[in-house]
Design brief:
77% of the residues lie in helices and 0% in strands. It has helices spanning 3-25, 32-39, 43-49, 54-79, 83-98, 101-114, 123-137, 146-166, 170-186. The longest helix is centred in the middle third of the chain and has 26 residues, at 54-79.
């Protein structure tokens, strides 16, 4: 095995171990010592791969877990032509992931405290805003100020995802939240 492959394997192990501990204990309750002990590595290995220590390791964990959301969004964009349906299915994908332990705990719960503001104005928001504009231009949704509408719908979807992640019955919560958000979107549709 080459040095590069060994380094990649070492980095991946640290991310996997940190993911498991962050899900079980939370970011604040997980120490660097626990991570390196469970990974069976020296402290220097962690700082070699993650110079900012636990914070940059957590960011790498978030990237790994958040990747599923971007894959789901790509699938939605490839599958549905209607911008309004893309919005609904994108929200459905978010809520489905929120009901899964790793995504809900890492991206929605822990990242909120460890990486404040990470969800504000990101690619998810920009995608929603762009699709709302396309839906209005296509005559699917009534005209509205795009920024105000995007902020309102993004906030509703994000808080719904938080609710799902914190729920003792996440699948049920996701289903109920999706139904409520669909009702909101249906109220924006052009009628007649």
């Amino acid at each position: 095995m080459s040095r590069k492959e060994q380094a990649q394997q070492s980095r991946a192990k640290l991310v996997d171990v940190a993911l498991e501990l962050f899900v079980e204990q939370g970011y604040a309750n997980t120490s660097v010592a626990q991570i390196i002990d469970q990974a069976g590595m020296a402290k220097g290995a962690l700082y070699h791969h993650f110079p900012d220590g636990k914070r940059s390791l957590f960011a790498a964990v978030v990237d790994v877990v958040d990747h599923d959301l971007h894959v789901a969004f790509d699938r939605v964009l490839e599958t549905y032509d209607s911008p309004t349906e893309q919005i609904i299915q994108g929200i459905a994908a978010l809520l489905e992931l929120a009901s899964q332990k790793n995504f809900g705990k890492i991206v929605l719960i822990e990242a909120a405290s460890a990486m404040p503001g990470a969800w504000e104005g990101g690619s998810e928001y920009e995608l929603l805003r762009a699709n709302l504009i396309l839906a209005m231009e296509a005559g699917e949704l009534r005209p509205a100020p795009p920024d105000a509408l995007a902020v309102a719908l993004f906030g509703a979807a994000r808080k719904s995802a938080d609710h799902v992640a914190a729920s003792s019955t996440p699948k049920k919560a996701a289903s109920e939240a999706l139904a409520a958000l669909k009702q909101l979107i249906d109220g924006l549709r052009v009628t007649g």
